[in-house]
Specification:
This is Unconventional myosin-IXa. This protein is an alpha+beta fold and about 500 residues long. It has 16 helices and 17 strands. Among the domains are: about 1-50, no CATH class; about 475-500. A four-stranded mixed beta sheet has the order 6-17-9-10. A three-stranded antiparallel beta sheet has the order 1-2-3. Strands 4-5 form a two-stranded antiparallel sheet. It binds adenosine-5'-triphosphate.
Amino acid sequence: MMLWPRMALENRLSGEDYRFLLREKNLDGSIHYGSLQSWLRVTEERRRMMERGFLPQPQQKDFDDLCSLPDLNEKTLLENLRNRFKHEKIYTYVGSILIAINPFKFLPIYNPKYVKMYDNHQLGKLEPHIYAVADVAYHAMLQRKRNQCIVISGESGSGKTQSTNFLIHHLTALSQKGFASGVEQIILGAGPVLEAFGNAKTAHNNNSSRFGKFIQVNYQETGTVLGAYVEKYLLEKSRLVYQEHNERNYHVFYYLLAGASEEERLAFHLKQPEEYHYLNQITKKPLRQSWDDYCYDSEPDCFTVEGEDLRHDFERLQLAMEMVGFLPKTRRQIFSLLSAILHLGNICYKKKTYRDDSIDICNPEVLPVVSELLEVKEEMLFEALVTRKTVTVGEKLILPYKLAEAVTVRNSMAKSLYSALFDWIVFRINHALMNSKDLEQNIKTLSIGVLDIFGFEDYENNSFEQFCINFANERLQHYFNQHIFKLEQMMPKACIQNTLAS
Ligand SMILES: Nc1ncnc2c1ncn2[C@@H]1O[C@H](COP(=O)(O)OP(=O)(O)OP(=O)(O)O)[C@@H](O)[C@H]1O
């Protein structure tokens, strides 16, 4: 295109005022001049030919930062992301924010070569990557001497936990530069332990986090990892006693039942998963055939998920627990408690007589098993399961539970035991992650936090837990919007100040 070309001025017809001229090279190399109107006619013709398939579609250029899209609207934004995804580019920037699209397959972009490539690089210079975000946070922390935080948000199954793992991996790799010190090993070992006890298969995600976590990696001012801290939020306790169709209980139960040795099976009185009430609800889906006739359709079970090797997972868990500092004796106690919870769920009740509401346990042979595994007296356990103690003015009353109450109490006991176990595991992990140097007052520490909470959920039956999860997501989104708008507002001010100063 030529602006104010001599030729255009010379050849212009009266009344036409060319400001530019279109110049096109023909196939034989000769130059062809055209007016804007003729060029528009040709392009329109080309567009029609392409639409009919006579001409090849032009290769669409993709933008690695959505802010660079010439025309930013929902359609172009989604098309750009789709186009990139087709070429296995799962990451795209929106300024300093990173969008990740779950590829649901392994991509070879997380090996040490990539760690090196993204070390100390300027955001936007290379293809967008999760390592680039970790790198920017790390160097911003070192340069500005300020703590940093990375917030990960997205609906269930979108890849938040996987992204957290990549971030933690890169954050520790940047610090160690090739050497795996003790603390980094513990940080990396903590992930599989938390996942085994706090993740489960859901309808949306085979490895869904059923708790929120904030992992804070602490550094010395030189950038060396000092230690870490894990904060846990709201473990979904209801899953322990009830799961929706096609969902499972926490992974650790299936690992234990598949991977325990013969000796452990005997010691913990282990059975098959389908023999435990807390695990066998998934196989049966009520199928309504007519209005007054319900029957239970036997669906294929989901005790094992495609591609899963539970025995191997149990071995991996044992290794990770060892890395985090759980001694064999402690591990045995943990597995004994898990077995006790499973047996506890099998306790069922019946009315003693038709006349009153008093109840009895219909399978008393389970009681000695639970009492042995929990190391509590059988009588005390029985009392706790069938009676309630209340104190009135100067009087202690022991009242029997009603049938429905007793089932709720049994489930509450199981939920409390598991929740206490999970809290204790997080506590022990934190103890192992805490470096004594953290506590020394003369060492100034910096940190990078990664927030990974459960994603937005909408099931057929949504419980109080879904309400809490979705509310937390809404709050996080609100915080994010506020933060981004504040940054946007600050930007013009900073620009004006800079212009005035210069
Ligand atoms: N970058 C990735 N590369 C390969 N696979 C991935 C990636 N991100 C996610 N996945 C796959 O998607 C699955 C679900 O991801 P993830 O568990 O991280 O989701 P989530 O957002 O944390 O879900 P929830 O909120 O339910 O915990 C993973 O188990 C993994 O198989």
